[in-house]
């Protein structure tokens, strides 16, 4: 809390942005402390909410936005701040995905999520006493979204070799380290120890840094993210973004010829879903999602393009990795 006041001292007009729940967790307290205006995001990460916030920022000459919450609050704040040309601070109340630190906003449109360029926060103030108390479904989703970097980095390297795409050693190594550290600390995270929670939040922050270094979400998002976006488009999954990406990472690592069993074991140890049933979808929907990935960001070359994914390959991958 002292840190936020210190940062706020450098700005004339501040606005806190929360959801109705995160306002109660920390938003109201910060608004009171800074003696500033506040806004509640009601609908989630939609274009309407981004426009509503941008309008308020411009009309009221706001110079700093403070996002208090998880994925959607942070996504709306970072995009509106970017478009209005002001700084923003991230105060995560959970650790469900790497949006808390990344320069990319995920906005819902027509049932699917679109990744849009935004700016990274000028500071991330993570209060571990708040994050460690968040529901475990958010923590396990954060594990899935970080372990997913394992297949994302392999896809990036493939895009570099086959398509001559830019590939940065530093950003890719950092992103791979994010996955490795979480893979090795799965049980600590499951038990919510200080080491485990610290490692997860640092991994999510580092993932955002890797994207900022690369100038795109390439180090953090590959075929497993396309699979997750395809599931969102098809509807019916009970899994959070990170759950879907973690599950996708098992399948993609298998297709990449990597050690998918290690991915699966760590996800299982951390209490993450490792079967379709756990996120409420059946084999047909998973096959449809794998085929639908072709429509998502076709310029982003992944293992699914490389092996020319079809129904047969999709089915055998699902069975061989025991996700079905
Ligand atoms: Zn993600």
Write out key terms for the chains shown.
324 residues, single chain, two-stranded antiparallel sheet, binds zinc ion, 56% helix, alpha/beta
Q: Any overview of this molecule?
A:
It is a single chain. The longest helix has 21 residues, at 194-214. The chain has 16 helices and seven strands. With 324 residues, the chain is α/β, with parallel strands linked by helices. Strands 2-1-3-4-7 form a five-stranded parallel β-sheet, with helices on both faces. Helix 3 packs across helix 4, helix 7 (149-163) packs across helix 12 (241-255) and helix 12 runs antiparallel to helix 13. Strand 1 (14-18), helix 2 (20-34) and strand 2 (37-40) form a beta-alpha-beta unit. The structure holds zinc ion. Zinc ion binds next to helix 12.
Beta percentage is: 5-15%
Task: Calculate the mean pLDDT score and round it.
Answer: 96
Structural classification? alpha/beta
Uncertain regions spanning at least 5 consecutive residues = none
- Physical arrangement of strands within the biggest beta sheet: 2-1-3-4-7
Order of helices and strands: HEHEHEHEEEEHHHHHHHHHHHH
The small-molecule ligands in this entry are: zinc ion
- Helical fraction equals 55-70%
Main β-sheet description: 5 strands, parallel
End-to-end separation: 46 Å
Radius of gyration: 19 Å
Shape: globular
Total strands: the figure is 7
């Amino acid at each position: 809390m002292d840190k936020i006041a210190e940062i706020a001292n450098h700005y004339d007009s501040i606005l806190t942005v929360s959801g109705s729940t995160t306002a109660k967790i920390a938003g109201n307290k910060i608004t009171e402390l800074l003696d500033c205006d506040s806004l509640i995001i009601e609908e989630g990460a939609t274009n309407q909410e981004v426009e509503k916030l941008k309008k308020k920022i411009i009309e009221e000459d706001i110079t700093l936005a403070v996002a208090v919450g998880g994925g959607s609050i942070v996504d709306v704040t970072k995009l509106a701040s970017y478009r209005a040309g002001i700084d923003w601070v991230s105060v995560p109340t959970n650790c469900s995905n790497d949006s808390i630190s990344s320069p990319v906003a995920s906005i819902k449109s027509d049932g699917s999520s679109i990744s849009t360029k935004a700016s990274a926060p000028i500071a991330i103030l993570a209060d571990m006493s708040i994050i460690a108390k968040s529901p475990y479904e958010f923590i396990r989703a954060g594990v899935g979204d970080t372990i997913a970097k394992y297949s994302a980095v392999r896809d990036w390297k493939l895009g570099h070799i086959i398509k001559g795409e830019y590939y940065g050693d530093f950003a890719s190594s950092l992103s791979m380290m994010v996955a490795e550290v979480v893979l090795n600390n799965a049980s600590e995270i499951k038990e919510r120890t200080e080491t485990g929670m610290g490692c997860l939040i640092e991994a999510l922050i580092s993932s955002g840094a890797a994207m900022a270094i690369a100038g795109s979400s390439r180090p953090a998002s590959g075929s497993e993210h396309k699979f997750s976006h395809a599931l969102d488009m098809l509807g019916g999954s009970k899994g959070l973004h990170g759950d879907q990406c973690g599950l996708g990472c098992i399948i993609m690592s298998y297709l990449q010829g990597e050690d998918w069993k290690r991915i699966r074991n760590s996800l299982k140890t951390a209490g993450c879903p490792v079967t379709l049933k756990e996120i409420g979808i059946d084999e047909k929907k998973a096959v449809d999602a794998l085929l639908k990935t072709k429509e998502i960001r076709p310029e982003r070359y992944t293992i699914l393009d490389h092996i020319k994914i079809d129904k047969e390959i999709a089915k055998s991958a699902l069975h061989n990795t025991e996700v079905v």
